[in-house]
Design brief:
This protein is mostly beta strands. The longest helix is centred in the middle third of the chain and has 15 residues. It is globular. The relative contact order is 0.12. This is YjbH domain-containing protein. Pfam families: YjbH.
Length: 708
């Protein structure tokens, strides 16, 4: 069990912003909305594929916090959280608005043709910033870019004219209201897309050098009004002017004079998972492959009296331990060898396989030609990868050797334990660690930003290869995440998550979790897990799971059932009076190209029935960025603000940041709101993420590290 996974919720975002960034095209800058563009108006430019951008912009009393991800070369998405003072007439505090954008670029810019993009702004929110646009951008010379576009919604509140799409149908001539006071928001406003008046916008950019970009734009957005139609600030001119400065790669600071009355400032930070700050990494050099002499390759057996099997096993155990690989069992024949081992160091099982094979070329008798490796995690043999030793000897230094080694790999399900000789473990059964943690809660309407930090002590004891006892204790040192009162149910929905701020609020040490987990293999493609204990900070109980996942299949199917009881607010050993049985049937699919899809259908913590749909983009270096949404039988008005659960999740491998091999990673989920509907119990060690590490799709994606 990787204790290092128990890092704070905010660690992923902190690491992303702290990671050394790689220089990018100087012309791709970000707007105050956090999207590629001018100042307020979009352009048709796209960031580099995979780029992640965090933007904070402020002007006219409005604070915008944006997260943008370039999902593919042409498609990007943005999540935005904005504070707007004086927007509503019923509250003195700022109105906090959540919104989502999508943007698609149709083509690459040509010698004569501009790039063209279409975008939906605030298509999934309350509609405060709702608007659509079609925009074109063309480079002129080495330093100028010109942009012109046609906008609807917010992009047509200045200089609007009759919608040209009205020629297609009369329904495009009128635009329904996208923001209604008291509306919960969170539902796509498709009925308003590209409807109502249209207006033109545009601008120019001039880059005198790679660090500076000067901008001027004509804005078609004059929608800065409160609910009563009164202006939030004076809009004296549609012309905006600004300058963007890049003091460091991945950092953009922008100053602008907007609407003839407002001084604005924004800061943008970018990181691209495709660009490692340490190149290929700072991994120690692997042991070179030892090539057998031609005279001994044909040997049909080896002298066991001169080189006993016990001596080989002991030498292998010691040699593999240097590489962070724990040898579990070995089966040796005259011409074959089969090894089961646990990779404790390398994020990619493909890299661990390459390191193990190099060592085996030096330690195995010369007669052994066929080598089968069976990687194991949490006691589960993941697969059986069979190699010809002569291939390893011949391909190490060959051009195209990496691809050729994958083509010649024979991968199937792990074999039975029969014939394997166990090897005494070379590592301690008991492991522990002490580390700081950071907890962040975002977007709560009553307290939009809550932060806490402290110290966490975690430990695990491996009772057997498949049986693991683990737990963690936390002590909060400081934070502003104190709750004043217990939340009441909304629309009859039980409070299963909204009281999370009350947990551990007493100031003393808390039991974060304490579980006993057993992992089993029920058949060649069937895996199981059973976990009992304090499963997470809010729930304890029993969790059982089975997973069907063939080694070479893109599809996996799982079933999980949990019976849980809500824990006491002190996070020690007592329970509250709420208990529920939940369960999900899950389908996992590897679409290729790094895209992983998941659907979880079943019963959630509040007793609601529905399904979660998720899509993640995974990169070869271990980064993962994705989005999800959950729809259940709870009506939108009973769910509360946001209408349904949705969010963004990020995982960052620490070897990307440190440059050193490690299996550690940190992750977080950015939810639009923490509500009760669509909530699942959080159980560590779910099967799919463990099992697929040794299956073909994951090995293929990371095979570039086989010879590392």
């Amino acid at each position: 069990m990787a204790l290092s996974h128990r890092l704070g919720t905010a660690s992923a975002l902190a690491l992303a912003l702290a990671t050394p960034a790689i220089p990018q095209d100087r012309a791709v800058t970000y707007t105050f909305f956090g999207t590629p563009g001018l100042l307020e108006m979009p352009t048709a430019l796209s960031a580099d594929e995979g780029e992640i951008a965090g933007t904070v912009g402020y002007f006219g009393g409005q604070l915008r916090n944006s997260f943008t991800f370039q999902v593919t070369r042409r498609l990007s998405g943005t999540f935005r959280y904005s504070g707007i003072p004086d927007y509503t007439i019923s509250e003195d505090d700022p109105y906090w608005d959540r919104s989502f954008d999508l943007r698609f670029r149709f083509n690459d810019e040509g010698r004569l043709a501009p790039s063209v993009a279409v975008g939906l702004q605030d298509f999934l929110g309350t509609g405060v910033y709702s608007g659509e646009y079609l925009v074109a951008t063309k480079t002129v010379g080495d330093a100028f870019r010109v942009t012109a576009g046609l906008g609807w919604g917010r992009f047509a509140t200045n200089g609007g004219f009759d919608n040209p799409l009205g020629l297609v149908g009369g329904r495009f001539e009128e635009r329904p209201d996208t923001f209604v006071s008291g509306d919960e928001g969170g539902v796509p406003g498709a009925e308003a897309f590209f409807r109502g008046d249209a207006a033109v916008f545009g601008g120019v950019e001039w880059a005198p050098n790679p660090r500076w970009i000067l901008k001027a734009e004509y804005s078609s957005d004059e929608g800065y009004l409160d609910q009563t139609g009164e202006p939030l600030f004076d809009v004296n001119s549609p012309l905006n002017f600004g300058a963007a400065w890049r003091p460091l790669p991945g950092v953009q600071l922008q100053l602008a004079y907007l609407y003839g009355s407002q001084l604005g400032f924004s800061a943008n930070f970018t990181v691209n998972p495709n660009d490692r700050p340490f190149g290929s990494g700072l991994d120690p050099a692997p042991q070179p492959v030892e090539v057998r002499a031609e005279a001994v390759r044909a040997a049909r057996s080896w002298d066991r009296a001169a080189l006993p099997e016990a001596a080989i096993r002991d030498r292998l155990r010691q040699a593999l331990r240097v590489e962070g690989v724990e040898l579990l069992a070995v089966e040796l024949g005259d011409r074959t060898a089969r090894l089961r081992y646990v990779n404790t160091r390398y994020r990619a099982e493909a890299q661990a396989m390459g390191r193990v094979l190099r060592i085996l070329t030096a330690e195995l008798p010369a007669s052994i030609e066929t080598i089968t490796l069976e990687p194991v995690q949490n006691g589960l043999p993941l697969s059986a990868a069979t190699f010809a030793r002569s291939d390893i000897e011949g391909l190490e230094n060959e051009v195209g050797g990496t691809a050729a080694s994958l083509q010649r790999l024979d991968l199937e399900g792990a074999g039975p334990p029969r014939g394997l000789v166990p090897v005494p473990p070379a590592v301690e059964r008991f492991t522990w660690g002490v580390a700081p943690y950071v907890g962040v809660s975002l977007f709560d309407p009553n307290d939009p930003f809550q932060l806490s930090f402290g110290v966490e002590a975690s430990a695990a004891y491996r009772i057997g290869p498949n049986l693991i006892l683990s737990g963690a204790i936390r002590q909060k040192i400081a934070g502003n995440d104190d709750e004043e009162a217990e939340r009441e149910p909304l629309g009859g929905v039980p409070v299963v998550r909204r009281n999370s701020g009350l947990y551990g609020d007493g100031g003393g040490p808390v039991l974060q979790d304490l579980t006993l987990s057993y992992y089993g293999r029920l058949g060649p493609d069937l895996y199981s897990r059973a976990t009992v204990g304090y499963l997470e900070r809010m729930y304890g109980g029993v969790s059982a799971e089975v997973l069907w996942k063939p080694v070479e299949s893109r599809l996996g199917v799982g079933l999980e059932v949990n019976h849980v009881v809500q824990r006491g607010y002190d996070q020690l050993f007592d329970f509250r009076d709420y208990e529920v049985t939940t369960g999900h049937l899950s389908a996992y699919y590897d679409f290729g190209g790094g895209f992983q899809g998941e659907v979880d259908a079943g019963r959630f913590l509040a007793g609601d029935w529905g399904a979660t749909f998720a899509l993640d983009r995974e990169f070869e270096n271990g980064w993962s960025v994705g989005g999800y949404f959950t729809l259940t039988d709870i009506p939108f008005e009973d769910f509360g603000e946001g209408s349904f659960d949705k969010g963004i999740r990020i995982n960052i491998p620490l070897d990307f940041v440190l440059g050193q091999p490690t299996r550690r990673q940190v992750g977080t989920t950015i939810r639009s709101l923490n509500r009760d509907g669509g909530s699942r119990v959080s159980v560590e060690g779910r099967l799919y993420e463990i099992v697929r590490q040794g299956h073909y799709g994951e090995l293929e994606d990371s095979w570039g590290r086989f010879w590392r």
